[in-house]
Amino acid sequence: MTTSESRGYRSIFWPILLIGGGAIWLLANLGLIAGWSWWNLWRLWPLFLIAIGLDLLFARRSPILGALLGLVTVGAAILLLTAAPSLGLPQSPGLPSWFGPAASAEIVTETFSEPIGLAETAEVELDLSVADSAIEALAGGDNLIEAEISHIGEIGFTVSGETSKNVHLYQVSEPFGFRIDWPEGNRLRWDVGLTGAIPLDLSIDCGVGKADIDLSDLQIVDLNLDIDVGDIVLSLPAMESAYEATINGGVGRLEIRIENGAAIALDVRGDVGHILIDVPDDAAVRVQADTDVGDVRVPSSFDQTRSGGEQFVGESGTWETSGFADAERTITIVFNGGVGNLTVR
Questions:
Q1: Is the residue at 3 inside a domain?
Q2: How many domains does the chain divide into?
Q3: Backbone dihedral region of 188: left (phi > 0), alpha (psi from -120 to 50 degrees) or beta?
Q4: Is residue 112 part of a domain?
């Protein structure tokens, strides 16, 4: 008796879609998609639903048709993403469609502040939620913190202590509901100013969204930064004493700028995305890096003192500038990466 096995249908639509998604990500990381924004990619979710439906209806009849559907979908996505700036589409409209604010939710703007008072030091914790944000030093005045927040739900603001204050600014609740329309005009944003008059122990949870965090005029004694999803620009100050900064990366691009004269121990853990670190030209720098998938790029003037050996997709090793061991003020970078490149320049 002979038996016959029916060969199951296997569409090549999905492999092409995955390859295309990787190609879009690569083009974005290389800066070849002008005005790249994760939010504009979210806008295209109806396109992917249509393509999936067409694949289910017609691609079973022909693998070639499935391939064409995948190519057309990826091509249309790239075309729309590159055309987004010229079409005037907002680069960060606030929230992606289906987990946006409930239809009845309103965006409100509130201000929060706390004076320095008798405080000689302060611990500040900022939970930025889902929004674009900017953090910088206050121009002056007697306040420890000033914040203007456009948000939905409720914002919590707690302060305790006198000579050593503890400040916590956070999202209490977000009335999210299921919706499939994109909320035009929604602009969720956090603008936070901190005093440069006293030393700060600073913790920031960036949540989801773009963030410009300029700490160059602050007195930082310790920094903890958690990133969920978004593009982050972080400027670190030069203090009289050395300090530590711990950064837990999420998904997106992270750029770190270190001021001239800084002495810092920087511990960076990346998940998915490109991490770029700008160091001063004359700084004494050591880079200890280990990536799962990705490359480590350092200036040609750095000496490699340790090699992690050959790896199939990742790279590891230690590099440092000449005279690092004898320098009084140093920048030490310890990097443990997931998927993405580390560039030190």
A1: no
A2: 2
A3: beta
A4: no
Are 80 and 125 in the same domain? no
Residue 327: CA atoms inside 13 Å, Cβ hemisphere, count?
A: 19
Q: Which of 214, 255, 210 is nearest to 93 (CA)?
A: 210
Q: Are 147 and 169 in contact (CB under 8 A)?
A: yes
Q: Are residues 269 and 333 in the same domain?
A: yes
Please tell me whether residues 307 and 158 are part of one structural domain.
yes
**pLDDT tens-digit series, residues 144-161:** 999 999 988 889 999 999
For tokens 């995955």, the residue is 18
Those residues whose C-beta lies under 8 Å from the C-beta of residue 1, and which sit 6 or more positions away, are none
Tens digit of pLDDT for each residue in 66-93?
677 777 777 777 666 665 555 555 544 4
User: In DSSP terms, which residues pair with 101 in a beta bridge?
Assistant: 176
Could you tell me which residues come within 8 angstroms of residue 285 by beta carbon, excluding any fewer than 6 positions away?
279, 302, 320, 321, 324, 330, 331, 332, 333, 344
Q: Which two tokens stand for residue 313?
A: 């997709």
Q: Residue 221: which domain range?
A: 118-344
- pTM given for the model: 0.70
